[in-house]
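Lecture 7, part B: from sequences to assemblies.

Below are the input chains for today's worked example.
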Amino acid sequence: MFASIVSYGLAVGAVYALIGITYNVMFSASRVFSFTAGMLGMLGGVLGALFINGLGMNAVLAFVLVMVAGAVLGLVTEILTVRPVLKSIEQHLYVLSTLAFALMIQQVTAIEYNTEPQPFPVLFPIDPNSWLGIVDQKFWLPVLACIVTVLGLEFLYRCTLIGRAFLAIAEDSYAARALGLPETRLRMASYAIAGVIGALAGFTGAQMLLAFIGNQAILNFYGFVPVALGGMGSNRGAVIGGLALGLFQQAANFLVGGIFASVAVFAVFIIVLLLRPEGLAGAAAARRV
Amino acid sequence: MTDATSPISASKAPAGLLGRLEGSWSWIALGLAGLLLPLLDDSYFGVIAQRAYIYWILGAGLNLVVGYAGQIAIGWVAMLTLGAYTTAALAAGRVGGVEWHPYLALIASGVMGAVFGVIVGLPALRLRTFYFAMTTLGFATIVTQVALAWKDVTGGGVGTPGPVFPWPFDPGWGFYYFCFILAALATWITSNIGSSRYGRALVAIRDAEVAAEASGIAKPKLLILIFLLAGGLGGVAGGLFSSLQSYITPDAFTFEMSVLFFIGILIGGRGSILGPLLGTIILTVLPEFAAPLVQWSTFLYAALLLVIVLVIPGGIADLLDYKNRRPLEQHREIVPRPELLSRIFDVKSGPSAITLANIALHFGGVRAIDGLDLEIRSGEVHGLIGPNGSGKTTTLNVISGYYRPNSGQLKLNGAELPINKPYARAAYRIARTFQTPRLVGGASVLENVMIGGTIDGSGTFAESMLSLPRHRRDEKRLNEAAMRALATVGLESLADVRADRLQHSELRFMEIARALMLRPAFLLLDEPAAGLSAEEIRRLGALIKAISREGTGVLLVEHHADLIFDICDRVTVLNLGKTLAAGTPAEIRSHREVVSAYLGA
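Predicted structure of the full complex, as structure tokens:
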């Protein structure tokens, strides 16, 4: 039982962490929390299942197409739902615009695809009795995706010029613009990257979570919890928070049942927000009067 | 010249077409339609109407949360779920084995909704809007999960039957009238709150939180009351819903409903009651006539939400607000009448003083204030000048409680002032204005000024809900006091205009009027002359001087040296967070360092 708690918990946690990173990448570029994060995760699984099972595509081609779809949706999110309301960001209209867009996509999926959970194909033909099959791929795939994403983002932010430009925008978009950085294009690029990460979370997690429209709401919330706990914009916090959340949830599931697990996560979420509004790792921002 | 103290009747006239609709006849028409609908004897219409009433009972509460307080409670449908399961489970005896009377179960639903409304709302008391949106969404997700998993009580995916209310509100038209009465009650209560000082305070928190705090509005306390009310209404709506559905499953509470409630409010317009009510009714009825589109209804709702947010964020109320599109008179002149001040300061208080002793405040490594001593005495104008970044506004923010100094003492008449509680300053009659005017753009000038007197009301939240005599006396008094303050600063002719249509200089005087509502013992002015013409500065100077002669201690942060030396009794010059010089204007003017560092030769 311990092994299944750990493997399942880490795997789900990695998906939560990836969705958390999706939130973070969009937030860093625009100070906007976009409800499309969960939608991207849901769609990664649904599109993958549709391409491979439904259309009989090769897994590699399907993966590439899903990533492209994620990037395109990220761009559409930025253009359609974020840019028009950035001027009046203090009214938080982006909450509604991104939510509306995510719901529209979810509904199209429900009508054109399926409202019931659908199986996701096994991606790698691995013999479960060989040494490679000790841990099922549905568990290590999301963890691997999470590691690759974090390393990739670290490389991008630290070693490339465009990555530094992203950081400059995140730190002070006004000053960055004054330095001549193309803020709008960088923001669009960030949203495209976020789209890819969200879709990756869904694609790699779908053998476990299935291709299901209901994943949208679940990922929206459970993907945000690590962000809130780890501090906004902190990818390290999101990964630690996501894995911890996954393990905690699975342990509670196995030991005391699902009701308690959901309620406990929610209670912890609220209590942490009340005691440390800036997150467990974040620093309090000075108030402006 | 008109008598400034006469109650101004014009201020009662609401703005715009929708505002005029909110006059009584539209309510009477709606009420009659509801009362007479059973004459049609069409049970199909009856059921649709009942659903609309139930949705509106929840929507009325949500309207205060969303439309007034500006909190984006996107998952409020969870209150409906919670209420429905509470009533159904209690009435069916699924909890504790005792079958509750349906009416008692309904009351229990209201209590449950109120309790969870506050729990879900807790993060909103301290955190940014997005977190609250997220907690309500998370709560909605979790309530559904629990409903599915807690089979003993909820019946799980199979569901549980809803109760049947016995006489006098038995199924059919009896239940219809039950829903109708409760919806009417919800409308009445929320519109009473909306037009009370609590409603104005909510809007102030939404649009000008800092100014609301300076006026003595404690956000947490007010929001808890609103969440109690909105949660309770949502719970009651849920209880009724379980009876209307006669059988409830988790599938009955889709997220789509939350979107529907939201759009209803946004279409109607923020800060209105009738608009969201009509919006909710239309959205409930519409799908009945668009059956082929039923599959796409959620998609269409979501698309509608997107369009509203992007195209008309102000809702229909804004579109129809013709009155505020009429051009205002050009070349308006503000003529304050300081002679009216004696009517505002009707109670004289003895001499008092605010003293700062050795106050220091660092932001990281920056020493914003570095050991400052200062005394503001009643009846005097104390000027605070210095170059940019010398700590003037920071000092003002320390006195008004926004910043906690790292060391030093802040006292009023020898007693320590509470630190870090800006909303507690109003009770000490310490008022302030802001470098950038803080206002509720969508409210009238009069309402903006009335916000300043929020703490002077004596009626409780419950009294305002029911529009009891004390509430009505409060409103009358606040209205008169605000008109007096406006007449004093010379803005009474603009009382009914939306505040965001005023010129910059007029906003500065409006802020002073708002501060005067506190009959301030101390008035802190942060660059009140910035952006004013020379003539306006002269009038402002006379007004400030006159206010101080009523016994108020004025702290004036300013860059206009002429104004400072004209009206100040004493002047302190700051440089790099320290006192460079202090004394009478004459002494400062001849102070060698001040002249070389700041004033120039």
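Note for the exam: Residues 16-319 of chain B form a domain with the ABC transporter involved in vitamin B12 uptake, BtuC fold (CATH 1.10.3470). Keep this in mind when comparing with the next example.
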